[in-house]
Specification:
There is one protein chain. The chain is an alpha+beta fold. The protein has five domains: about 15-100, 2-Layer Sandwich (Ribosomal Protein S8, Chain: A, domain 1), CATH 3.30.1370.120; about 180-205 and about 220-250, Ribosomal Protein S8, Chain: A, domain 1 (2-Layer Sandwich), CATH 3.30.1370; about 260-285 and about 300-335, Ribosomal Protein S8, Chain: A, domain 1 (2-Layer Sandwich); about 340-590, no CATH class; about 620-725, Serine Threonine Protein Phosphatase 5, Tetratricopeptide repeat. The strands form ten sheets. Strands 18, 20, 23, 26, 27, 32 and 33 form a seven-stranded antiparallel β-sheet that branches. The chain has a six-stranded antiparallel β-sheet with strand order 21-22-31-30-29-28, with no helix packed on it. It has a four-stranded mixed β-sheet with strand order 8-9-11-10. Helix 17 runs antiparallel to helix 19.
């Protein structure tokens, strides 16, 4: 009952006590002691050895009781402590306190954790005082004392009260009943004590659970970490203790250089900033899913990924296991992205020009004839043409409105089939009724927008002011009067392309007052999504506009007479309606060989200056290109780049299917890839070619000269012996 009354009185006192602010900066410790004495009303006797300065920063108000505990903590940091002596309190060095009349606490006494020196009596139930003293001695400070009293089976500990409470927790864990358990202290050098203790306890707990399920007698293994000195305290039977030591020896190893938690990974193809965002979303999504399933995620939230844009690298902070998972994901994402080469032709055609385009038309719907699908959406000003009148599907006539079409192989215009956009360009570049506005050629990566703008900047008056001095001040704004085309390609696994096409045509209206910088414009826009095959051509038509042409007719000499000349001349303006067509042909670029093929083709066109359409349509294939590509493939083959070599040989044979060097080297590639039957097919094609070039000795090997025909036959015999036939 006395204790209960004491507790109630304590609560009542804390309710009535006042709160203060303690804030001292480098104050003499004796002045601080005097302040606490006046605050608490306690009497202090200060040892002459008590000297020094103290600094206390307390941004919040605290109670008088808490202020006294802060006082004891300050003394403990300075190496001093308090010892009660009747009605006064002595303040002496901590090293002398153990020989003074300090408080003695017995097991079961409840005291608040304070930073003052006390003596704790600890009766042991199962462990011997000497064993426990050996375990606890490294865990106390130099000024503390642990005495083993074997006659009574007790420990006598003199230390700071807050540290004694920590020691009591360890004693309570270790002082348990056991038969042959032994206590072992293992100091760690590299590993973290808390993490190692968690791992070992988990392992032995699972093993004990399995033995209990099988009704097998089990022993208890307890591992307690002591963080301050990075030590493990192990309680186990001798055989289990040995197993723990063996396991700790394997875990407590030095991390090899380069195997820490920070990793730097340089990317070859992907962009570091974009990939970092994708990877950082993985731990969050996995944690949610794994928590629902009750499983631990393979990548924790502690993983941090930071991109370095300058070097295109990822700085990853993760364990080796988590880094291994991320590295596999990055390898699958950091791959070369395919590209799309876009050929376009933008031209204007007079409305009275009889231009028929052989095309499958789609407007505001979906069409699919095996070559592709298209979905069109249009915007701008009316009128728009419709497709109700199209009845001849095999040879439809171009509608007059804003329409979209997907062409099959070749471009059919006016009954003539052109193989590509370049042929259309050559055919109509000298036609007075057709105006070639632009022939853009763009190369972009998969899922990246490509844009082009063809036109001019026209000044528009934005403000105009005239001062009292009759001076004009005019501000202008330049705007684009142009044709804009933007295309975003997306390549599917089946080598079809999804093209997001946006077109905008802005023109000056006929008769606009350009001289006064007040022109009027009209605009046509189209936003379209098309799905087509590689090399198919898309045509957008029906973008209607008007061109104004001023003309003058006069009688020679008489028409130039001032004033009277108007009687002998006439002036007029002719408005002509024009229709704009935009042709777009996408080509998928899968590898460097494809780029090389396109480059050689463009170089060949640039060197060909003849404008005749017939030459463009019937020009023979340049076999020299096939030889160049075969030579490049041979260089890749010698360098060990098998896949790159294969790409060059395939592109070479696309130009010249009978190139024997490309055939025989492609066979070598197939042989290295283990595709023996395909290799034999390539060698057989060399034999069937049987030209003078194949039969003529031209390849040196081991001092002898062989023909390609002989090499092909030898390779076939070699493969048949290996079972490739």
């Amino acid at each position: 009952m006395g204790q209960g009354v004491g507790e109630a009185q304590t609560v009542n006192n804390r309710v009535n006590e006042r709160y203060i602010t303690i804030d001292f900066d480098n104050v003499d410790i004796n002045l601080f002691i005097k302040y606490i004495s006046e605050l608490t009303g306690k009497n202090f006797i200060v040892d002459p050895a008590v000297k020094g300065n103290v600094t206390i920063i307390s941004p919040t108000r605290i109670s008088e009781t808490d202020a006294y505990q802060v006082f004891e903590s300050v003394l403990e940091i300075q190496g001093f402590t308090t010892v009660k002596a009747g009605s006064v309190i002595k303040i002496i060095p901590s090293v002398e306190a153990r020989s003074k009349g300090i408080d003695t606490i017995r097991s079961g006494d409840k005291v608040a954790p304070e930073d003052r020196v006390v003596t704790q009596l600890v009766p042991l139930k199962y462990s011997t005082p000497l064993e426990m003293q050996k375990i606890l001695q490294p865990l106390v400070s130099k000024t503390s004392v642990i005495i083993a009293h074997t006659q009574s089976g007790m420990l006598i500990i003199t230390d700071i009260l807050s540290n004694i409470n920590r020691l009591m927790s360890i004693i309570e864990t270790l002082d348990v009943e056991y038969s042959r358990e032994e206590i072992d202290v293992i100091a760690l050098e590299y590993a973290n004590a808390v993490k190692v203790a968690t791992i070992i306890n988990t392992i032995f707990q699972k093993a004990a659970g399995a033995k209990q399920a099988a009704r097998v007698a089990t022993s208890t293994v307890r591992v307690v970490p002591y963080e301050r000195i990075n030590t493990l305290i192990v309680l186990a039977e001798p055989i289990d203790a040995a197993r723990v030591r063996n396991l700790v020896a394997k875990l407590d190893t030095e991390t090899q250089r380069g195997e820490g938690n920070i990793h730097v990974l340089y990317l070859q193809n992907a962009r570091a900033g974009e990939l970092a965002k994708v990877l950082m979303a993985i731990p969050q999504q996995q944690t949610t899913e794994q928590e629902e399933e009750g499983k631990a995620p393979p990548i924790s939230k502690d993983v941090n990924i930071m991109p370095d844009e300058e070097t295109n690298a990822l700085i990853i902070t993760a364990s080796r296991e988590e880094y291994g998972v991320l590295e596999e994901v990055i390898k699958k994402l950091d791959i070369p992205r395919r590209m799309v080469y876009l050929e376009a032709l933008i031209m204007e055609v007079a409305e009275d020009k009889n231009l028929e385009v052989g095309v499958q038309w789609v407007a505001g719907g979906i069409f699919d004839d095996g070559t592709g699908q298209a979905v069109a959406g249009f915007s701008g000003e009316p009128p728009f043409g419709t497709i109700e009148g199209i009845t001849d599907i095999e040879s439809p006539v171009l509608p007059s409105g804003f329409t979209l079409g997907v062409l099959k192989q070749g471009i059919q215009i006016g009954g003539v089939t052109f193989p590509n956009i370049a042929a259309v360009l050559k055919a109509f570049q000298n036609d007075s009724e057709i105006n070639i506005i632009s022939t853009p050629q763009l190369l972009t990566t998969d899922n990246k927008k490509a844009e082009i703008l063809v036109g001019q900047n026209v000044p528009f008056i934005t403000s105009q002011n005239t001062t009292t001095a009759q001076q004009d001040y005019t501000q202008y704004e330049y705007r684009d009067i142009a044709t804009k085309l933007s295309i975003t390609p997306q390549i599917s696994q089946a080598d079809t392309l999804r093209l997001e096409i946006s077109t905008e045509v802005t023109r000056l209206k006929p008769g606009s007052d350009e001289d006064q910088f007040r022109p009027s414009t009209f605009r046509r826009t189209a936003d379209t999504t098309v799905v087509v095959r590689d090399h198919d051509t898309i045509v957008i038509g029906g973008i209607i506009g008007q061109d104004a042409t001023e003309s003058e007719f006069k009688v020679p000499l008489l028409g130039d007479i001032p004033l009277l000349g108007w009687l002998f001349k006439t002036q007029g303006t002719t408005n002509e309606t024009v229709n704009m067509f935009i042709f777009i042909t996408p080509h998928i670029i899968k590898n460097p060989a494809d780029i090389a093929g396109v480059t050689l083709e463009k170089e060949d066109r640039l060197s060909d200056a003849l404008p005749q359409v017939k030459e463009e349509l019937h020009r023979e294939v340049n076999l020299e290109h096939s030889v160049i590509l075969a030579d490049r493939g041979y260089e890749k083959l010698r360098a060990g780049e098998i896949q790159a070599a294969k790409d060059y040989f395939v592109e070479s044979l696309r130009i010249d299917p009978t190139n024997p060097y490309a055939l025989i080297n492609l066979g070598v590639v197939y042989e290295k890839q283990g595709k023996y039957q395909q290799a034999i097919d390539m060698y057989q094609e060399v034999i069937e070619t049987n030209t003078e070039q194949v039969a003529r000795p031209s390849v040196e090997s081991d001092g002898n000269t062989f023909s390609l025909l002989e090499i092909a036959r030898q390779n076939i015999e070699h493969l048949k012996k290996k079972g490739g036939d």
